[in-house]
Amino acid sequence: MNADTLLNRLERVRETAPGQWLACCPAHEDRSPSLSIKQADDRLLVHCFAGCPAGDVLAAVGLELRDLFDKPLDHHRAPLKPYQRQRQGQAFEALQSLRVEALVVLIAADRMAAGQRLGWRDTDRLHDAFERILDGCKVVGAKPKDAKSPGHPPELKRPSEFADQVADYMQRVNRGEVPA
Questions:
Q1: Which of 82, 94, 113, 151 has the most beta carbons within 10 angstroms of its beta carbon?
Q2: Are 25 and 17 in contact (CB under 8 A)?
Q3: Looking at residue 81, what DSSP letter applies?
Q4: Helix (H, G, I), strand (E, B), or coil: what is residue 9?
Q5: Cα(first)–Cα(last) distance of the chain, in Å?
Q6: By C-alpha distance, which of 39, 26, 41, 174 is closest to 109?
Q7: Over 70: is that where the pLDDT of 164 sits?
Q8: Which residues share a beta bridge with 39?
């Protein structure tokens, strides 16, 4: 908005610096100017030192907050619908869980890369982590890479093979055969 559009609707306007003005606030009975107006790039900044909300100041002269801007902000998004907020919350929870499961895989991989064998409990926990990661990917809408793509561990045939496959994969990463 051009500053003149607002300034012409105010009383006792005086310029304090280039692109800056003081005026009486139309939202309350103002005996001395308490409303600051500043032209900043493609918008006007409005502040009442008596504490009136900008929306009330503008409403008193027949304007709205959106009138302060020359064009809509690029980063403005429409509010999320309830089902979108719920979905976003589910995705956040899934990602939090994925962090934990990824840590389980990392610890197991470090042990196996150091030459340690995993016990049956650790192997089962690692298999659970793998399944939970796949489930989490479904919740957030991600699709696991094709098992045939380079560097991706192959599809499991039996749960007991998982630890051996992770160990083999980590050895290939350590040798530089696949990207980490």
A1: 94
A2: no
A3: P
A4: coil
A5: 52
A6: 174
A7: no
A8: 44
